[in-house]
Specification:
alpha+beta, Beta-Lactamase, Arc Repressor Mutant, subunit A, 2 domains, 10 helices, 5 strands, elongated
Length: 236
């Protein structure tokens, strides 16, 4: 497994474009016995209509519809078809119980049998990798190995892709100072600026100054949104 991961990293490292990395991933997915794949990055913010980037060989319109259902209601609709709490196994039959039109289109695209894995990255964005093929259901013997390999692919591929979204930068780029983080944490606890000032032994104007800096970094207009975004991005 170590050699396989090292080989994957070397292949991606030599690629100079996103297209080249997608080709590497397609080649690996094919070696697993799947003709199609979809890799998506859905940002943690904004909360309404979060931005999603999609790569791979799934038809884009179909992939967007599938991902919207998967992200919005996976605990109710998709997880029950999985034999694992991590890897969701699906086929066109189970999909038809969720969305008949989506299932019929999946058959037309050759996406009859597949599986999907979703993880969070360091920005709390959702990274999702789905693979599919036109024939042969996924067997129990395949499932365990697929779960491991897809998780590795998500983590390694995600590191090599440019996953910065338009708007707010990723959590590692939107770095708060230690004082800003402290103030945002106390604000999240419901403390007023005056109360935070007393706790940290600084003046209220200093608290408000730091809060304004936090709001500017996060691209929001009030401290309530600053707290919400800070939590969503894993900054506090």
């Amino acid at each position: 497994m170590y050699e396989w991961i090292s080989s994957l990293s070397r292949q991606l490292n030599f690629c100079e474009s996103e297209e080249g990395r997608v080709e590497v991933l397609q080649s690996l997915i094919s070696s697993f016995g799947f003709e199609f794949f979809c890799f998506s990055i859905r940002s943690a913010i904004p909360f309404i209509n979060p931005k999603t980037r999609i790569f791979g060989s799934y038809p884009v319109d179909w992939a967007e519809r599938y991902l919207n259902i998967y992200h919005a209601r996976d605990s109710e609709l998709f997880i029950k078809y999985s034999k694992s709490s991590l890897l969701v196994i699906w086929d066109h039959v189970s999909m038809a119980t969720v969305d008949v039109a989506l299932s019929e289109e999946a058959i037309g695209h050759g996406l009859r049998y597949g599986c999907t894995l979703k993880v969070r990255d360091f920005t709390n964005s959702f990274l999702t990798l789905s693979v599919a093929r036109p024939t042969t259901a996924i067997t129990l013997s395949e499932e365990q190995e697929l779960g491991i390999k897809l998780r590795v692919l998500i983590e390694v591929f995600g590191e090599y892709m440019n996953i910065r979204q338009d708007g707010v930068s990723g959590a590692r780029e939107t770095l708060l100072t230690e004082r800003e983080r402290q103030i945002l944490q106390w604000t999240a606890e419901g403390k007023s600026s005056a109360e935070v000032a007393m706790i940290l032994s600084i003046c209220t104007d200093t608290v408000n100054y730091h809060l304004n800096n936090v709001k500017n970094k996060l691209g929001v207009t009030n401290k309530t949104s600053a707290v919400a975004y800070g939590v969503a991005l894993g900054l506090i």
